[in-house]
Every structure is written in structure tokens, then in C-alpha cells.
Amino acid sequence: MARELLGARLVSTVGGVRTVGVIVECEAYEGLDDPASHAATRTGATERNRAMFGPAGHAYVYRIYGMHWCVNVVTGRRDDPQAVLLRGVEPLEGEVEMSRRRRGRKPLAAGPGRLCEALGVDGALYGHDLRHPPLVLAPGWVVPDDAVGVSGRIGVRAAAERPYRFFVRGSAGVTR
DNA sequence: ACTCCGATTGTT
DNA sequence: ACAATCGGAGTA
Known about the structure:
8-stranded antiparallel beta sheet; 3 helices; DNA-binding; globular
């Protein structure tokens, strides 16, 4: 599922301003059987992770380190809490606005926290249906297999070795 | 009630 | 290499 999100467009009209990016890096979180997931079996459904237990195509947004936002696309069916963390996009439209939101810092949208800041994503979009504005997951381009890299997940302790991170080789929107 | 620490980022 | 910054989750 995560692999297929590469090349998709993320269209934000938060604040009435249009900013668009192509997804070039993401990570899969397998829910119940995945110790790194916020929806691992031990915890079950909680106030924070309940969006992941809902239908696919909605946003699971959470705060990390008390200061950054991260956004996931829920990919499992109801009660199957799978999700894909969006880790990086390449700007397509509204690069000036993205830079303004980022207060001139670079990189612009490489990294989950930076991506959210650049596109104006925050807790107000918790559980949001990504078929509708102000945040839409739209078709983009098919990324050929030879352009896709795979690796372990970044920043996690548990099950970090699982090959669940997918990225577009050589893209400026990919971290590290 | 209290402690630990994180799916990160920016600066030293 | 390390600080910033705070709420979720586990323990008591």
C-alpha cells in the first residue's frame, strides 16, 4: 500500500491557499502486528489512534516530540488499523507559500514534520476524509520500480529492520 | 500522581 | 552531539 502512494499528489487548500506536493517518501505501519505502530495490540484503540481504526482514506494526524505534526493515510479497513506515514513530498504548486510557512528554512518538505508544516497540516485535520478539501489525496504519476528505493524505517526502535520505507531515488524530497 | 520517552527538527 | 517541548502510555 505504501509503495502505491509514491507519485500521488497531496493537494492542500488549508487557509484558502493552494499548495501541492508529490509524495516521494513514505513508511508503512502494520497496525496490530507491528510493535512500532501507535495501534499495536498492547494498546488497542485509544483517543489518539482511533482514526486508524476507522475507514481507509482518512488522515491520522499526531503530534510528536511535543512540537511537530505528522500525517498518515489510513489504509486498512475499519478495525484494521494500518496506516502509511507521509515522510516527504516535492513541491508542485505554491512553493512560495510553503516556504513562508517554513519561515524560509530548508529543506522545504523532506521529513514528516517539515511536510506538515509546508502544507499547513495540523491537528485540525485529525480523521479528515482525504477525498475532500482542504486536504486531498489525488492521483499523480506511476513511479517505475527501478526508481523506487526500499529500506528500514527511520526513527523507530521496535521492528526498525522491516523494509517498510519506500522512496523515489534521488528526489530532493527524501530525507537523509 | 508520576515517570519516561518518542514515527523530529534545528542548532552547536 | 544535543536541546526543544509535552502529552500519551505505562506503572503505582
